[in-house]
Design brief:
With about 250 residues, the protein is mainly alpha-helical. About 70% of the residues lie in helices and about 5% in strands. Strand 2 and strand 3 form a beta hairpin.
Length: about 250
């Protein structure tokens, strides 16, 4: 039935616009979940040492390549039928390897400059970002690297002939993993000794050191935790889009 007025908008038009809005909301929540995991690593490092870690986006990109390589190896060993088990193993190993990379980056590029002027670590972070991007480009090549399709099951939420609204198993997995990790991260920061040490270093690093907190160790663990969350984002990104590129860290980094 056509509404009163001269604009010619019908009830079917409004229904279709709502369906488009719901679908885009689902898509936005999925991408926002990935970006949220990346953002936590940024805020953790910035909160403790007051530096924007420009290399963090490229750590995310590196983690997606690590996840792809591990997925190809583990899938060939376990077979295509155990895709869920393969993803769990890939997720754990990617977090460990990416955390190790970030620990090495902190020790090599940031810690030696901790007592220098404030721009020195920033310049070092930009240099590390350029290094990681070019390193992956040289090792893996400039072309897109596809991943095998995973969790392709799709559920129709609103069955409409004009614009059906769907929710894929990939999107459910991404949002669920993000919620679980955010709850776990909140508990770690608020309820554990490491979280108290991190909050103390954020407030006053000198006073935290006087009170017996190992500031260097806390900073290193913060880098590792941020990179581990970026690794989860890398796996989720690979799961959602099925392709990775050496430049994929730039846009999330910005």
């Amino acid at each position: 039935m056509r509404h009163s007025g001269d604009n010619g908008v019908t009830g079917e038009d409004i229904k279709m616009h709502m369906e488009v809005f719901i679908q885009q909301l689902i898509n936005g929540l999925t991408l926002g979940s990935i970006y949220g995991l990346i953002a936590i690593g940024y805020t953790m490092v910035f909160g403790i040492i007051g530096m924007v870690n420009f290399a963090h986006g490229d750590v995310f990109m590196l983690s997606s390549f690590i996840a792809l390589i591990l997925l190809m190896i583990i899938s060939s060993v376990l077979g295509a039928g155990l895709i869920v088990l393969s993803l769990v193993i890939v997720l754990v190993l990617s977090m460990a390897l990416t955390g190790l990379w970030s620990w090495a980056i902190e020790r090599v590029a940031y810690r030696p400059l901790s007592g220098s002027f404030r721009l020195a670590p920033l310049i070092s972070a930009i240099g590390m970002s350029i290094f990681l991007m070019n390193f992956v480009q040289v090792v893996q090549g400039p072309r897109n690297k596809p991943a095998p399709p995973m969790l392709n099951t799709t559920y129709v939420i609103i069955d409409s002939a004009a614009y059906p609204v769907t929710l894929s198993l990939r999107q459910i997995t991404i949002m669920t993993v993000t919620i679980v990790l955010l709850i776990g991260f909140w508990y770690l920061v608020q309820k554990t000794s490491l979280g108290r040490a991190q909050r103390a270093c954020e407030q006053d690093r000198k006073m935290a050191a006087l009170l017996g907190i190992n500031v260097d160790r806390t900073v290193s663990l913060t880098f590792v935790m941020g990179a581990a969350l970026a690794a989860v984002a890398g796996v989720m990104y690979l799961l959602q889009y099925g392709v990775v590129n050496f430049a994929d860290g730039f846009v999330p980094g910005v």
